[in-house]
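Propose amino acids for all 288 sites.
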């Protein structure tokens, strides 16, 4: 579970106003579909609310000062005090406000950074999914189920998922804004991202790190299914083409998955670790 601090009242009002505004459109982080993205959105509203404590007084006082100290008809419309030096009351007011806002921002940043650690599992037994980024496609391995999919991340709705990620080429980055934040993938290394979809639905995930000519097409469909539909998808995937050396060789080639099937079966149990360690490698042209 993600434990987030109690939000400021004004942030609740902010979030409520957004909901009442009818923004039911798919707007990424502003339309969260899971606990991680929900906590990220709440953090965003808290930061916006705290910043408004600084911005609103500025926009109110600037017109007032311009009007009060305006020059018209040959004279000022405010008292002229050439001997005025300082006021401790004003000094306290001017410095205390920004200091409190800065302290609050720092506290919330620290708290949410710990709460939203991408390596922190959301439950005791999350579904394990291994993600391999190619040029310019995504391979999703389900080691506990023995199946795999290309450019389609299928998740069981309401169940926590742990993604173990790597890249077979240059550094890349994965982002599904409705479910979780961005995290990088590097060749020969693994990172993790934990997420969960609360309800069935479909969203777009993509690589946000430029990696060549086909970068704009490197996206995938993230889909959450109910328990029955997920079981049916697993059964269909189990009867698909095996993920053999020929299929892996096709994945290694630069290009999109137009000529590849959606799902594979009979996934070698240690394939992901071999890909990370370089044990499975098909020579192809490098990046220019």
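Proposal:
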């Amino acid at each position: 579970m993600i434990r987030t601090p109690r939000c400021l009242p004004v942030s609740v009002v902010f979030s409520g106003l957004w909901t009442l505004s009818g923004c039911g459109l798919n707007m990424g982080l502003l339309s969260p579909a899971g606990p991680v993205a929900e906590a990220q959105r709440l953090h965003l509203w808290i930061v916006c609310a705290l910043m408004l404590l600084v911005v609103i007084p500025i926009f109110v006082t600037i017109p007032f000062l311009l009007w009060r100290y305006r020059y018209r008809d040959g004279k000022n419309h405010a008292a002229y005090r050439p001997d005025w030096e300082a006021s401790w009351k004003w000094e306290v007011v001017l410095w205390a406000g920004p200091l409190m806002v800065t302290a609050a921002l720092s506290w919330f940043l620290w708290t949410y950074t710990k709460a939203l650690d991408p390596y922190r599992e959301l439950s005791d037994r999350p579904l394990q999914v291994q993600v391999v980024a190619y040029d310019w496609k995504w391979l999703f391995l389900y080691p506990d189920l023995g199946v795999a999919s290309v450019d389609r991340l299928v998740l069981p709705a309401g169940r926590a998922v742990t993604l173990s990620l790597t890249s077979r080429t240059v550094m890349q980055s994965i982002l599904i804004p409705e479910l979780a934040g961005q995290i990088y993938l590097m060749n020969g290394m693994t990172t993790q991202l934990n997420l969960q979809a609360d309800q069935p639905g479909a969203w777009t995930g993509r690589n946000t790190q430029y990696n060549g000519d086909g970068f704009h097409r490197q996206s995938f469909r993230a889909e959450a299914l109910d328990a029955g539909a997920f079981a049916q998808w697993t059964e269909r995937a189990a009867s698909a083409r095996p993920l053999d050396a020929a299929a892996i060789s096709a994945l290694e080639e630069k290009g999109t998955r137009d000529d590849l099937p959606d799902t594979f079966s009979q996934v070698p149990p240690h394939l992901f670790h071999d890909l990370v360690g370089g044990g499975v490698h098909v020579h192809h042209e490098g990046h220019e």
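Confidence is low (pLDDT under 50) at residues 7-25, 281-288. Residues 35-68 form the longest helix (34 residues).
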